[in-house]
Amino acid sequence: MLWIKDAHLVDPARGISGRGSLLVKAGRIHKVVVGEELTAATVLTLLDGSDLAEVTQVDGTGKYLFPGLVDVHVHLREPGQEEKEEIRTGARAAVRGGFTSILAMANTQPVIDTRALVEFVRLQGERAGKARVYPVGAVTKGMAGKEITEMVDLKAGGAVAFSDDGKGIQSAETFRLALEYAKLTGCPVISHCEDASLAGAGVMRMGEHSARLGLKGIPATAESVMVARDALLAGATGGRLHIAHVSTKESVQVIRMAKAAGVDITAEVNPHHLIFTDEDVPLTNTSYKVNPPLPGRADQEALLEGLLDGTIDLLATDHAPHTWEEKAQPFPEAPFGINGLETALAAVWQELVAKGKLTPEKLVELWAVNPARRFGLAGGTLAEGAPADLVLFDPEWRELVTVDNRESKAHNTPFLGRELQGFPVMVWVGGKLVMKDRKVLD
Ligand code: DOR
Ligand code: ZN
Fold it and tell me: Is 134 within 8 Å of 164 (Cβ atoms)?
């Protein structure tokens, strides 16, 4: 049994934001009391306990207590590219970053396109015993963009969504079929919107800055035309669509229109697109190379506006670990991707919440409540009876991001060598303490 006291509890799903206590029993949230101090005697009565020695007490003074964050966009690289990340290391990195549930993308080697592979990912996640790992099944076999996977089978194996993320599905007819088939599973299709003919061999956002650096550009339309196509197809089929990593102002406009028209569409934005722009891209640091590329300033403003007005539903990291060897190549050759799990929450806190652009309540809505709801996952709330997936967050905790104190196997983050402020300090999954004082517990 657990008694977390005097923390600032935040759960927008239940309209909670205030100082109070949370009690955990048998791995579940047993009682939430806000605006009132509990005595030990009351706690014992509430927990139906006889001895206070059975109750672990945690002092939350000066800290926030959030529902465990839910990250619907994570690349764990297993099977096939364990040199970049393993399910075990990714699940550890997740809890160190404040995420108690993660969705593992299907672009591994081999691609997660059979029930056996979905089950492998789920079981490896269970073995790791850290964040809950939910597999995403591929939309097309081998992510070749042609033949739809056995979605009903993949769902039976544990898939909670379908995606060829990492690649856009170029054929509109294939994507239409995917939305149609996915309806049989009730799961959303996550679309990586990228028209290959427009993106070409680009490596950063096309514009003045790409021209100055002499790097091939990716036009904003490479994303937005496919967002429009997919929104129209979702409308026509009645399928459930989720747009991954939105990065342009036109995409935000299209999603706003689609929502107004009643399309079943949600969208995410990644922290790096809210924090950096194409002007920040240095030729010599490929940790800034990501797909979709870092946006222009006007795009970034539209993304934040979209988050605030509900056009964009949630935050997700797009954690994309890559080895030093790969990222040490010249900018055009290095792979796309930013390592996000361990720095994303701190970065968003420092750059957006601490600067008054996002409230702590909105942060929890975007990163716990909404993602859990959209993908039908347990957690994401402090509701009594829910699994005790919890994050004690210290807004004062400062930490230098170095290669030595990380759980992820890879270190391709633009925050390397920088200090960030505002980190999770204790994390529970199903009532089990899995991270304490920034260290993952074995
Ligand atoms: O930057 C990216 N990296 N974007 C993607 O869509 C895929 C990801 C990866 O798998 O490395
Ligand atoms: Zn991705």
Answer: no
Between the CA of 402 and the centroid of ligand 2 the distance, in Å, is 24
**Which ligand 1 atom is nearest residue 167's CA?**
6
Nearest-Å Rg of the Cα atoms of the chain is 21
Q: Using the atom order of ligand 1, give the atom closest to the CA of residue 105.
A: 10
Do residues 222 and 192 lie in contact, with contact meaning Cβ atoms separated by under 8 Å? no
pLDDT at 31 over 90: yes
Domain residue limits at 218:
68-374
**Ligand 2 center from residue 166 Cα (angstroms):** 5
Which is nearest to 10 in space by CA: 356, 346, 363?
363
From atom 3 of ligand 1, which residue's Cα is the shortest distance away? 337
Domains identified in the chain, total number:
2
Please, what is the average pLDDT of the chain?
A: 98
What's 123's domain CATH number?
A: 3.20.20.140
Q: Where are the alpha helices (DSSP H) in 205-290?
A: 208-213, 221-237, 249-260, 271-275
Q: Are residues 130 and 262 in the same domain?
A: yes
For residues 28-43, average pLDDT: 96
What is the Cα–Cα distance from 323 to 41, expressed in whole angstroms?
Answer: 54
Ligand 1 atom index nearest CA of 337: 1
pLDDT number for residue 50: 84
The proportion of the chain whose per-residue pLDDT surpasses 90, expressed as a percent, equals: 99
> Does 295 sit behind a cis peptide bond, omega within 30 degrees of 0 on the bond before it?
no
pLDDT at 357 over 90: yes
Annotated catalytic, 299?
no
CA 387, 22, 91: angle at the middle one, nearest 5? Answer: 40
Check pLDDT > 90 for residue 248.
yes
pLDDT tier for residue 238 given thresholds of 50, 70 and 90: very high
> 261 CA to middle of ligand 1, Å?
30
Q: 149-166: per-residue pLDDT in tens? A: 999 999 999 999 999 999
Q: Which helix (H) or strand (E) holds 218?
A: strand 217-218
| Domain's final residue, options 318, 344, 374 | 374
Catalytic residue among 313, 318, 389, 394: 318
**Whole-angstrom Cα distance, residue 176 to residue 235?**
10
Tens of pLDDT, residues 306-321: 999 999 999 999 999 9
Around ligand 1, the residues with Cβ closer than 6 Å are 75, 107, 165-166, 192, 290-291, 318, 320, 335-337
Same domain, 13 and 89: no
Residue 171 · residue 147 · CB < 8 Å: no
